[in-house]
Fold each of these.
Amino acid sequence: MIDVSEKFLVNRKIDWHDDAKYGPSILPDPEFQKYSILWFRKSLRSTVVAQVPFIDDFHKRMYDRGENLHASSNLKFPRVSIPYFRIEYSINLWGGTYLFAFDALFNPEILMEKRRGKILGKDGSLIHILKFNPPDENILNISLPKGVMVFDVRNMIKVIDYTSNF
Amino acid sequence: MRHKNRLKSISVYVPIEKVEASLSEIGFLLIGSSTIVANGKFWNKMLYVNKDETISVSEELGDAYPKDPIITICGSKHTISSITDGVKN
């Protein structure tokens, strides 16, 4: 804990990433439960398959029932990935820069919607839709006493996921 | 008179339910929660607010044992001592 009368400058940088770093197989059970209507796995780090057909609205992709979403033999390349914010706080203190960084996963929202398409037909069919919502910014803040200024730098990075083409 | 806020971060070996009860007892409300990943570990981060004071409570997700929620308080000296005493008793 720093408790001095001097003011400190804190820089905050938020990048939005979508680079397949977080796939469903590596999520701990409480987080995986949020997707349990759509996805099935036996245990942590085992293969994840689709329980029902669904559309990943964020990546504009459709998955069929039984489709492999994240293979246990290929954990680094999930076929479904969870977007996230990378938040970096840095503070310059007595000539040194100290970094604190963490990732905040987007929250899933699962709905039933009527969609049309090649597979779903001209009249459309009801299908599960998976949406990803960014986490509330308040929660990502590190609360600091009033005398500290926070400089906010934002970047939006979208990395094209080529793994879906393999 | 408004008190000057201070910063305090503590790790406690008590269940998250006890921490939540202690916070609501002194008027803090849960504003929201998010899943974060720091140092390769998944955490559930919850934010509590009472006027200009904020408290974040982070608990590791998964099978980690023992559970030791981390409480970060940006609040008055009085709030800090009520919480540290509240989670001890």
Amino acid sequence: MGFFARWKAKRELKKAIKRVKKRPSPKAAADLIEKYISAEQMENAAAMAKQSLEYYPASPSIQESYRIYKKVKYQEEIRRLNLQIKDRPNPSAYAMLAELYGEIGETDKTLDLCREAIRKFPDYEGTYLIVGKIRYRRYREAGLPKDGMLAVEFFEKALKLNSKNYKTLMQLGEIYLELGMPAKATEKFKTVLYFAPEDQRAKELLDYAQAQPPEPDSDIEDRFKELKEQRDAQTSERRTSRFSIEELEFKLKEFPVFTGLYAVTITTAQGRKLASRIEAEQLSEEPVRESMAAIFKGADNSSLRMDIGQFEEGIISGQHYLVNLFKFENLVCAILASSQIKPEIVQTAVNAFIDDSLYASVGA
Amino acid sequence: MADIVTILEELNKEIGVIGSIVVTPDGMVVASALGPDLDDDTVAALASNAIISAKKGMAALGDNNCYRFILTAAHGKMVFEDIGIAYLAVVTHQNIPLGQTQIAIKGAAYKIRHRRVD
């Protein structure tokens, strides 16, 4: 970068920092991430992106900026590792590339690579650990029994290849404790203490595990399913969202109007009405809400069981209607528009609604 | 003209496409090129579930057609394209921009729909 370009990038960066400080919003934060990238301050860009993703996880502007950041930062390394795998395949190159994809959030690519690596190098512990970690993270996020089961399965496989791995032993011990299986947990913590007799945390967890009543006669899958049921029950008991119904009604008024917009509804994931705005005379609120809830239920159920995670967005093109359905935290928002409208127009309105209305009260 | 599996295999070469399948709305597999990590019957059943929900939801509003359904989830995407008596269902990676891939999906759907049995 030449002197003038560098000076210009820094000036733009200062302006972007001021904007974020003065009035934090997803757009201002996304702009700042991109200005950090332009000024080649990748560490600052990464820190800002991570912080922004915590505050605005569903923001399209932040996701786009993060995508740009990842592309700039890792493109060269990914290319190099891909070449290495092609020319001189070895398990550590696979693991590094898989970790890299995991780092940039492309966990499906990570899992694909790990599957390939396990087929070629079944005795390499690292790949099992990567899969175990990803499955466990997914389990923490969505609580799906399948992810939990696979996390345990892959951590156990890694342990078979290296029975002294401290982190894996501790991780498994803690998972078994969470599952209410103290005997299995005890076994893991005892192994840790055999190799590291002074480990305070292992001692504490072992004491705790040994103080628990004996576990019921159930297998791991049943326990994960029970935990999922408990988690679902707790979720439905919790407050619907951080917005009151009045706030949601108000926010819906801010939804960007475009020609061909028929209706916007917000419901809970269970289909309970929260707020709606009907723009077309021929439509009434209840059938629209019920239809959208039915579509969401089917799509969410399928995506969870397909192992592609929780539903985020659905776009349906019909003869008369275009539907854009998206999940924001625990709200399900649906936009019904004319099929003559381009999906991009609806998407732009949705993005603006998320960034400018739904996130309006959250500061960075 | 190419058979359906060949069309699906060609589609699978597009960036980000994991696998594809042709399935009737009631879950019957017409042709499949899903690859080793995806099970035909499971994908067909779950694709059918999503398609039926979408069709029913649209029908309740008076729209009896569901030409395309793009489902984005946390770890992947599925695209369902109406090809007449069945749907072309395509499983893709989570972070691919669908623009180019969608053109390929529409192309494959067109080829399957207008396929002539020699």
